[in-house]
Amino acid sequence: MNPARTIVTLRPMTLEDCLQMGRWRADPRIAPTLRTPPKSEAEQAVFYDTVVLHPVDHQYWAVVASASDEVPRVIGMGGLTFRRRVPGEAELSLLLGPEYQGCGLGAAAVTALLDYAFGPGQLTAVVGEAYLEGGGAGFWEHLGRHQGWSLVRFGHSLFFRIERPPR
Q1: Alpha-carbon torsion 13, 138, 150, 87, what sign?
Q2: Could you give the CA distance from residue 161 to residue 98 in angstroms, rounded to a whole number?
C-alpha cells in the first residue's frame, strides 16, 4: 500500500473488524504497547456489544485505507474516550495492524481522528499517552513535534495534548 496514493478514513466498526482488532492486540509485536491485556474472541465480542455499539463514554471506528487501484481495507481501529472530569476533552487511541505500521499510514489515521474530534465531535482538546518502552511513543513523539503538540515525558510514558485549532 503506497501511503502517497492512499486515503485514510473512519467508518463504523463491524463485529468482524472488532474481532480482527482482538487478533492484532494478541500479536507479540502489539501486545507490549497496550495498557490492557489482549482479550479472547468471546471477550472481544462482548466489548463490541457493550462498548462499540453503545457509544456513551467511548467512540470507536474502523480505520480504512483505500487507494484508487486497490480494494479498501481495514488497517486498524481508532477511538476517543470522553473525559467526564474535563468536558470537551477526549483521550485518543489508535491501533494499527502490525503489517500497516511504519509505512506512513498512522499519521493519516490520526488526522482522520482529529478531524472528527474537532469537527463533528466538537471537542476542545485531545490527549493521549504512549509507553516509552513499547515502541509506540516514538511515533507519537515524532508526529507531535512536527504538529506542534504539547509533549511531556513522565515516568515510563509520553503524554501529549492537542488543542483545537483556531477557526
Answers
A1: positive
A2: 25
What pLDDT digit, counting tens, does each position of 14-42 carry? 999 999 999 999 999 888 878 788 899 99
- Residue 93 DSSP symbol: E
**What's the CATH fold of domain 3-163?**
Aminopeptidase (3.40.630)
pTM for the full model? 0.91
Angle between helices 136-147 and 106-118 in degrees, nearest 10: 60
Contact 160, 114 (CB under 8 A): no
The b/e string for 2-34 (b: 16+ C-beta within 10 A; e otherwise) is eeeebebebeebeeebbbbbbebbbeeebeebe
> How far is Cα 111 from Cα 30, in angstroms, rounded to an integer?
21
